[in-house]
Amino acid sequence: MREKMWIFYCGDDSKCIFPIWNHWCLYYAAVVCLLFTPVRTDDACPPSCICARDSGTVTCLDGEDTEVPRDIPEWTSTLILKGRNISTLQHGAFMTNGTELEMTTLSLSYNGIQSIEPYAFLGLPQLHLLDLSHNQLEFISSRAFHGLPELRSLYLNYSVLPSATAQLSNALSTQTLRNLHRLELAGNKLQFIPMLRLDIYNLHALVLINNSIESIGGENVTSLYHQRRIRVYLSSNPFRCNCELEAFYYWLKNSSQCPDSGRLLCSEPEAKRGIPVEKLRGEDVDCMNENLEAVSYVFLGIVLALIGVVFLMVLYLNRGGIKRWLNNIREACRDHMEVYHYRYEQDSDPRLANVAV
Which of 48, 119, 53 lies closest to 83 in space, CA to CA? Predict the structure, then answer.
């Protein structure tokens, strides 16, 4: 009796014939492969991370990884990456297999991030809080924060290098951040408010402490008057207390929008160093007074110059008489000295004295 055969087609379209009894071996081999093959599940935790399913938190601390973990669980609501070597946030860095995450909190502080590419946070439509503090941002794409319509809080403290300040202004100007409530930019050596407009946001708090702001321009002051809900924190900035500070000074005096106004100190000029800005007098920052004072000094200089010119002209026109006058004085002095010299000789020689007697 002929033995039954199993016929399989091999990769080269040739027939591979096995006896029927071998099909049990193939069956068991397939089962073993399925059992030992790693399968991605929703509960899987990325390597070197700690996952807490109950709270929806994934924490990845320290490590040599240079990219964001690609296998972030879909149930993640809070992702904390800290102490990594992620130099660049690439396009769609937080998308898992092309799917969006329902993450609401993302902390990326202390990761040495230097560059944020366009649409880096794509796939996080529910994100409410983004912390990028204590990084080293040299490049920020103008579309870096696109795709974050629900973002409420953005922290960029001690992260933005001077080379990226202008880029930050463009990145923050996107309409995507229209629901932004809190923006923190402390410790970035900013010399101005890096926002082209304040009325495109729903800002309630703007933190600009410990920067290099010397004055707040009139346009920004006008915007602050219109956006009454905003609270601006400005302590530890080197304010230059001169005429340019006038608009900001009066806003500070007449508004309660700066909770730390008492800690705003003058840095220049030297005579006002250390004086609280709100303790200045109106004339200290009055542009009209400064202009009048400057004009007064100029006018005084012109008058003195004219007097000097007139005096020199008088001397020039009377140079002949002045010369004769000087010669007469010289002759008179010479005659006086000769008489004095003659009397001195008589007093010093007794014989001449007897002759005189």
Answer: 48
Q: What is the pLDDT, as a whole number, of residue 342? A: 65
**Distance between alpha carbon 159 and the CA centroid of its chain, in Å?**
8
Give the model's pLDDT for residue 40.
43
Quickly list H helices, 215-286.
218-226, 246-254
CA distance 248 to 33: 73
DSSP annotation of 3: P
Provide the 10 A C-beta neighbour count for residue 246.
Answer: 19
What's the order of all strands across the beta sheet hosting 115-116? Answer: 88-89, 115-116, 139-140
The dihedrals phi and psi of 154, each to the nearest 5 degrees, come to -130, 120
Q: CA distances (Å), 9 to each of 4, 16, 63, 234, in order?
A: 17, 6, 48, 76
For the chain, which ranges sit under pLDDT 50?
A: 1-18, 20-21, 24-26, 30-41, 289-292, 356-357
CA distance 127 to 100: 11
The type of residue at 347 is D
Look up residue 104 and give its DSSP letter.
-
pTM equals 0.70
| Distance in angstroms between the alpha carbons of the first and the last residue of the chain | 186
207-219 CB burial, b ≥16 within 10 A, e <16: bbbbbebbbbeee
CB atoms within 10 A of CB 153: 17
Of 245, 255, 256, the C-alpha closest to 280 is: 245
Instruction: Give 99's strand partners.
Output: 96
- Per DSSP, 18 falls in state E
Q: How high is the pLDDT of residue 290?
A: 47
* Coil/strand/helix, residue 96: strand
Query: Which of 11, 108, 10, 123 has its CA nearest to residue 59?
Result: 108
Type of residue at 90:
Q
The 3-state DSSP class for residue 6 equals strand
